[in-house]
Recover the amino acids of this structure.
């Protein structure tokens, strides 16, 4: 109940709350029994100083100047104990607490000196008790203002840090989403591009041979069925991976060089005459590099079949620091729509290879199109040292 009341009060406009404070302080001054002994001018000055507290947070410097002037003028007219101190203390505290540290501190020092000088002129005593009391109370107001302002600064800084951290998390989440979308796009392109090309070619073969060679047409349709099943299988595996919540499972590759022979058989079944040359001793690959190598070969051979003259050559060169993959194919005599250096296939290949620290070179001399990719292999395991060996 009390907390709700406080929250409701804080929700009120600032000047309204400060006006209520000024009204309460003014009421206390008006019922003060010492008013009979105060000159009328002193009472007017005190009222003006209290009224300025309405702007203590919206215009803190204005309130500081008016309350400080009221204290000094009241001291001149009626002495150090004549009043006006309460409004001045609140003015000094408010100015410092709301970020005017230097102005509030200097105003307090000026007020202390002014009161001391006025009292000394009036009484001849620089160490009057009233002067010491005014000085002590103003010092307390300054200290309280610094404490509150420091706390507010700490809260603001913590809030700013939290906001920046939240923005950073949002940007990181957006970056991860973009990377995941790109990864999915690459996988879908690689999975669909090759097998749909196989389906298209074999379906055309079946249509052409259906009336003249039913056995060959049936074989082509079998290849179509196998390619369709492969598409469904790989899409299902991709969907399962995307459903996983574990990062390691999600990042696990669905294909790799271990099934390269099956890919080469599929390519040859489409009618592409493919020569394969392997040199060097096979080296271990990181899982993501293994998948990249497989997808590069798949994309390049698919393009060679779609845009080439029916022949292609695949070279795999294994060395200790790298695997070099080179696919070459003569270009078709008649230019076709969708050159191998257009679309998103080569772009996706470059992005995929670059993400694992490799390099891609794709170029044509007008008759032959060549794709050359260099991928890093894993370093050989360190040989353990034998203690006592010479």
């Amino acid at each position: 109940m009390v907390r709700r009341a406080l929250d409701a009060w804080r929700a009120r406009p600032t000047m309204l709350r400060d006006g209520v404070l000024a009204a309460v302080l003014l009421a206390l001054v008006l019922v003060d029994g010492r008013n009979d002994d105060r000159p009328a001018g002193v009472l007017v000055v005190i009222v003006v100083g209290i009224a300025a507290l309405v702007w203590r947070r919206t215009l803190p410097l204005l309130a500081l100047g008016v309350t400080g002037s009221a204290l000094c003028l009241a001291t001149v007219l009626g002495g150090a104990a004549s009043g006006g101190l309460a409004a001045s203390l609140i003015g000094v505290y408010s100015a410092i607490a709301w970020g005017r540290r230097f102005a509030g501190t200097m105003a307090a020092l000026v007020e202390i000196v002014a009161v001391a000088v006025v009292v000394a002129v009036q009484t001849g005593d620089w160490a009057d008790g009233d002067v010491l009391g005014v000085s002590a109370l103003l010092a307390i107001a300054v200290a309280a203002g610094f404490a509150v302002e420091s706390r507010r600064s700490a809260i603001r800084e913590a809030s700013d840090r939290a906001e920046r951290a939240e923005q950073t998390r949002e940007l990181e989440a957006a970056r991860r989403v973009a990377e995941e979308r790109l990864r999915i796009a690459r996988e879908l392109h690689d999975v669909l591009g090759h097998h749909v090309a196989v389906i298209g070619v074999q379906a055309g073969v079946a249509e052409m041979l259906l009336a003249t060679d039913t056995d060959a047409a049936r074989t082509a349709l079998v290849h179509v069925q196998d390619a369709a099943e492969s598409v469904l299988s790989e899409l299902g595996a991709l969907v399962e991976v995307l459903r996983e919540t574990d990062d390691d499972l999600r990042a696990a590759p669905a294909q790799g060089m271990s099934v390269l022979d099956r890919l080469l058989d599929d390519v040859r079944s489409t009618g592409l005459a493919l020569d394969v040359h392997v040199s060097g001793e096979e080296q271990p690959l990181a899982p993501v590099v293994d998948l990249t190598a497989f997808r590069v070969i798949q994309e390049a051979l698919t393009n060679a079949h779609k845009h080439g003259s029916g022949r292609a050559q695949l070279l795999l060169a294994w060395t200790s620091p790298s695997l070099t993959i080179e696919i070459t194919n003569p270009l078709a005599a008649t230019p076709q729509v969708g050159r191998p250096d257009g679309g998103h296939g080569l772009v996706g290949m470059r992005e995929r290879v670059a993400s694992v620290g490799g390099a891609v070179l794709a170029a044509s001399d007008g008759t032959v199109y060549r794709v050359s990719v260099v991928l890093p292999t894993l370093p050989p395991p360190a040989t353990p040292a034998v203690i006592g060996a010479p």
Q: What stands out?
A: Confidence is low (pLDDT under 50) at residues 248-253, 337-342, 382-390. Strands lie at 273-279, 311-318, 322-330, 359-364, 368-376. The first strand starts at residue 273 and ends at 279.
